[in-house]
Amino acid sequence: MDVVDQQILQCLMLDGRAPMRRIAEVVGVSEQTATRRYRTMHAKGVLRVLVSEAAASARNRLWLLRLQCRPDAAAHLGAVLAARQDVSWVALHSGGAELMCTTTLPADAACGAGVLPQISHTAEVLSFTTHLVLHSYSGGPAEWSGFEKPLNEDAKRHLLQGRTPYRRKETYSPVPLEDRVLLEELGRDGRATVSALSRALNWPLSRVRGRLQTLLDSGAVTVDVDVMLEAFGYRTSATLLLQVAPSLIVTVCEALAAHRHTSWVAAVTGSANIVAAVTCRDSVELFSYVTEQLGSLPGVTHAEVVPVLSRLKQATTRVAAGRLV
């Protein structure tokens, strides 16, 4: 994947539903070239634009799980976890005997609901730790900006046409019942055109256009991108588990979230009170990041760097043979 592909991806990270004509203008290629490049990346399992209900995530508590497994069973258990709708970001870590993932659990869930209660009865799991996510400061590859040629501010303004990027809000409007079928279609293809949605739903174009814009503007749905950064040459990922002085947790989280190598930063419960996902080009760049940028932050008393061996699931998309499937 070259710089043109990288810049198309950056545009989609800012606005996953931006018109391809405008993306082409920003990147400096023809609309046909931009469309062909996007379709090629999509077909190769490099990226996928996601549209999902924001409130569904907002009303569920998010947990980070760290599982020490039997080496011969870790990959199978990871595949089982990845198949669950309430589990995401599944990865094999270290030497392949450790799994990390996130899972949601409704705040009003009855005892025994979700994946958490089942872990302790799973023979493949030798031990595990759980961290409740208290606050996320960034999330998803859309927050990652470690490209060799980032879009400049003029390009971003042109792409967004004066709007701010669609981001999760503090409060969420639920998706109205009559719009559920529209959300289901967008779940199949987050970049489906208004015309394609109109044909699929047998709705007038004006209704599709109006209802979709209302969902986006109200924050009822979010637009994200699942992406295999390895395809762009960024092949070294790690999870950082940090112990930070309580009075400096917010300061450190905000600093980490601003770093170009991080895709997720959160304050969590447990012996490590901050977790961060980092993606670099190689181990040399990871070492430089840890010793220079992370090492210069005040209040960090301990840092555990847990390398990712292989990723089994992104936000909502499973990964097989290095591609989204």
Question: What does this protein look like?
Answer:
This protein is an alpha+beta fold and 325 residues long. It has a domain at 231-311: Lrp/AsnC effector binding domain/regulation of amino acid metabolism (RAM) domain (Alpha-Beta Plaits, 2-Layer Sandwich). 34% of the residues lie in helices and 29% in strands. It contains 12 helices and 12 strands. A hairpin with a 5-residue loop joins strand 8 (262-268) and strand 9. The protein is globular and about 55 Å long. The model has no long low-confidence stretch (mean pLDDT 89).
Averaged pLDDT, please?
89
- The CATH class of the domain at 231-311: Alpha Beta
The biggest sheet amounts to: 8 strands, antiparallel, barrel
Summed up, the helix count is 12
Q: What is the CATH homology-level superfamily of the domain at 231-311? A: Lrp/AsnC effector binding domain/regulation of amino acid metabolism (RAM) domain
The proportion of strand residues reads: 25-35%
Query: Structural class given helices, strands, pairing?
Result: alpha+beta
Radius of gyration: 20 Å
- The helix-strand sequence is HHHEHEHEEHEHHHHEEHEEHEEE
- How are the strands of the largest sheet arranged? 2-4-3-10-7-9-8-5
Low-confidence stretches: none
